[in-house]
Task: structure prediction
Amino acid sequence: MTPTEMDSRIVRYGDLQPCKTAFIDAHTPGSDQKENFTIIGGGVSESPDQHVHIGIPHGFNIGAAGQPPRVTNSLHDHHTAEAFFVLSGKWRFFWGRWGDAGEVTLEEGDIINIPTGIFRGFENIGTDYGMIMAILGGDDAGGGVMWAPQVIENAAEHGLILGENGKLYDTKRQQKLPEGVAPMPLMSDEELAKRPEPTTADVLPNHVARYWDLMALADKKPAKVIGENGILRDKPGFEVDFITRGSATEAKHSHKYPSVLMPMRGHWKVTWDGGSSTIAPGDTMSVPENLAHSAVPSMTGEASLYHIVATGDPAGLTWKG
Result:
C-alpha cells in the first residue's frame, strides 16, 4: 500500500469534523454544546449532518465526543459494547434509570468498557474542553441508540422529536414527522424494570482500567485490556491492547481483520510494507487486514497507544450481572 493510499486511512485530530446536531439532546440545556465525531464506520448519529471520516467496515466503529466543562451526554444505551478512553480532560461516567445507580471518575488515558443493558451518560467535569474516544461493537454500531424516557420527553420540550425510523425532526426548523412515521415510543415500565441497576462496586474493577496501571502492565509486553483474556474480560467483537515504549517493537505483524491505532501519548512511527507515517495523540489510523506493519515511538518522552482489532465474534452484550 502506497503512502498516499494509507493517508486516506488516517484521520488527524486537527481534521476531525464535529456534528452538534447528532442526537436527540442537541437542544437540551446542559447537553446542547457537545460535539460528536464519527471517525470509522457508520456511527449511530440520528442526524444527516454527521460526517463519516472513514466508512470502511472494521467489525466495530470508532467515534469521539468533545465537550466543554459541565456539558453532559444524556442517558442512553446500545445493543452492543461501548468502550471509551479519555484523550483529554476529566470525566464523570454515571449510569442507571435516572443516572444515580453508580458513577466513576476517569482521567486522561483511563478506559471504561461500559456494560450494556443499562442507561449511561457522561459529563466533562474538568476545567477545559475535553475529548473521549469511543469504540462501538459491530459494523452497524448496535442498531442505534436507546434513550432513557425522560431524555426523549425533555428533547420534545426543546423542539426535537425522534421518529421511530431513528431520525431526528427539528420543529424549530419547521420539520415534522413524515406521514406514516410515528414518534419513537418510550420504553414501558415493564421494560425499564428489567434493566439492572449496578452499583459502582459492581462495575469496578471489572469494567475500568486506569492509565498508570496499564503503563506498568505494558512495560515489557503489550497489555490485553479488553478481550476474552483481557484485564477487562469480555468478548464484544473486538479486542483492545495497550502499548508503551517498552513494549513496542519494530517487528512487523498483521491481522486478518482491519485494525486501528490510536496514540494516547507521544508520536508514533508506523511502518508498513510500502511506506511509513507518523501519528500523534488524537489521530486515528486504520490498518488494512493482512498488511504487515509495526508501530514504535518516534520521539523521546512518554509514549502510549491503544490498538483495536476485530475478532469476528458477534458484537454481543457485555453486562454479566
Q: What stands out?
A: The chain has a mean pLDDT of 93.
